[in-house]
C-alpha cells in the first residue's frame, strides 16, 4: 500500500506548482519563488512524510494496541507501557545493559578520539597515511565481518585469552561469558573512534595559531596551553561529538545482534534496547509492544540530548559569545 | 484474469498521455527505494524461500532447474540464507504482503492463525499432492485444527552425532541405539579429559534445540512439553530433575561450562567441529553438512531413552520422528496449482529425489527413501538407520506446539544459561521458568 503512495506522490506534488504557474496574473512573486522552492524540496519532503513522519505517527498509535503484524491491531490503551515497567524483567535488563553501554562506551570513545586527534595533529612526513590508518576501523565498524572478528579475538582460544594465559591469567572466553560480554562490545565501540577523531582534527585546525604564540611568550607550557587554549577552544566540537555519541550509542544494534546470534545472550548480558525491540517486534510478533518500547527510547534519547544542550551553556565556549 | 490486466496495460501504453508519463516518472523515481520488492506480475514466476547450509542451497538450486525444465516458460526465484533471522524476515514479508509463494517456515503458528498459509487438504483430496507414501504419523503432527497446512520436506529425529575417532582413541565402544540416559552420562564421563568434554551440553546460544532433549525426557515420564490446549505440559519436579542431570555432568567436566557452550552460534561452530567434544545433540537432518566440516568419521545415535538405568519400549519410548522441515504454500500465492505441483514434485518425483538426496533429512515418502538410499554417504546411511529405528520404536504421537512455542524455547535456553553460568540456583530458575512461561502463554 505504501508502495502505491510513494510511486504517485512525487508526480502529484510535481503537478501543483505547474498549475499555479498557469495563472501568472494572480501569483505574486514571493509565492511563486516559494512554490519553486517546495518543488525542488519535493523529493526530500515526500521521503520525510511517507517514510519517516508517517511510520513514526503510526507507531505511536500502534504502541497503544496489541498488534501481531498479521492481523488488525486491537486497542489496549496504556497496557503495553504498564507491562513494560511492571511485568517484564527482560525490559529492565535491556535498560540496564543500554545505560551501562552508553555511559562507558560514549565517553571512552570521545576520549580516545581526542587523544588520537592530538597525536595526529602534527606535521610529520606521511601524516595523512597515519590519519587514514586510524580512520579505517570506523569504516569497517558496524559490519558483520568485524563482529565475527571480535568473536575470534575474545573467544575461547582467541588472541586475548592466549595473551592473558601467557601472563598466567587463565581466563575463559570473553564474548561468551555473561560478566564480560558487554565489555567486549564497549571495546569494539571505543575502537571505532575514527569519525569523532576526524571532527576533532578539523576542530584543532581551526584554533588560531596566534593564541598559542601569545601564550608561549607569556611562558605557558604544553600542559597549560592544552588546558587553557586547546580544550576551551575545542568545546563546541566536543559538544557536537557528545550529542552524536549519545544518540548513536543508545541505538547500538548490529554488534550485539551478530555476536549473540540475535538473542542478546549469553544470559541477556548484551540485550541492547534496540535488540529487544527487534526480538519483541519481529521474532515474537508483538509489534504494539515493540512500538511502545520505541517511543520510550525516543523520549530517553530526547531527554539526554536536551540535558546535553542545557548543560552546554556552562561549559561550551563559542568564539562569538564573548 | 492476469492476462486481461496485461492487455489493459498494453492498451494504456499505446496512448502516451501526459498523465501516464507523469505516473511513470513517479514510479521510476520511487523505484530505488523499493529494491528487493518483486514486481513480477505474470503467472510464470514463482518465489521459493528456504534456509539451510551451502550443501542444501546447491541441491535446491539444482532442483529448481529440474522443475523449470518440466514447466517451460516458468522462472522460479530462489530466496535463501542461514537459519538465524530467517523467520523474522519471512514474518516481515508476510506483514508487508510480499511473501514468497512456496517456502520453508520455521515457526508457522502465528501465520496459520492469521490465515496466511494455504490448507492443502483440497489439493491432497484431488490427488494434486500425493501423500500416499508419506509417513502417516508425521503428517498427523503437521495438522493444525484438523487441517493439513504442510507436508514434510524430509524426516528427522533428535539425535546425537558421535565422533568415532575419539571413541576409538579412548577405547570406548560406540553405544547401542537403545542406550539409556545413565549410559549416556557414563560414556560422556569416560571420554572427558582436561579441556575436552565427552559431550556438548543440551542447550546452545543460538539454534533451536533447548526443548528437543527435554521433550524426549518428558515423554519417558508420560509428559509433553506442551498440552494440546497450549499450556506447559510438565511440572517443577521434572524440570528440576532435568536441570540437575545436566548440572552434575557439567560439574564432572563431562559437558562444557557455560562460556564454551555459549560460543556455539550454529552447528558450524559446535564443539564437535571445534574439537572440544565427542558427542553432539541436534536434529539428524544436518548429517551431510556436519560431516563435511570434519575429517573424523561421524555416526548417528538416537537420543538416549529410559528412566535412570531402565530402558523403555513402546508407549514409554521417548525419542520420536518428526519432519525436519515442512514445505508451505502462501495463501495468496499467485498460482496455487503450480505451487502445489512443486510441493508434489519435491515429495514424489524420483529425479528430484536423486538431486535432493538427504539435503533435508530422510525423504518423507518411503518409496523415494528406498530409491535413493544406495546413493548416499556413510553418515547419511547411519542417519537413515537411526530415523528408522526411532520410527519403529516410538508409538506415542507428538503434541504440536502452541504459536508461542518458540518463545518458550528461548526462555528454556535462558534458564539453562542461568544454571550453567551459576547466576541462579536450580530451584529459583525452575520457579522463574514457570512464572515467565505462564506470562508468555497467557
TrEMBL record, chain A:
One of its GO terms (cellular component) is plasma membrane. Residues 1-19 have a biased composition (Polar residues). InterPro entries: ABC_transporter_permease (IPR051393), MetI-like (IPR000515), MetI-like_sf (IPR035906). Its main location: membrane. Residues 1-28 are annotated as: Disordered. It is a multi-pass membrane protein. The keyword Cell membrane applies. Gene3D superfamilies: MetI-like. It comes from the Bacteria. It is found in: Cell membrane. This is Carbohydrate ABC transporter membrane protein 1, CUT1 family. It comes from Kaistia soli DSM 19436.
From TrEMBL, chain B:
SUPFAM superfamilies: Periplasmic binding protein-like II (SSF53850). One of its GO terms (cellular component) is periplasmic space. It is found in: Periplasm. Pfam families: SBP_bac_1. The chain crosses the membrane at residues 21-40. Its main location: periplasm. Keywords: Membrane, Periplasm, Sugar transport, Transmembrane, Transmembrane helix, Transport. PANTHER family: ABC TRANSPORTER SUBSTRATE-BINDING PROTEIN YESO-RELATED, ARABINOSE-BINDING PROTEIN-RELATED. Belongs to the bacterial solute-binding protein 1 family. This is Multiple sugar transport system substrate-binding protein. It comes from Kaistia soli DSM 19436.
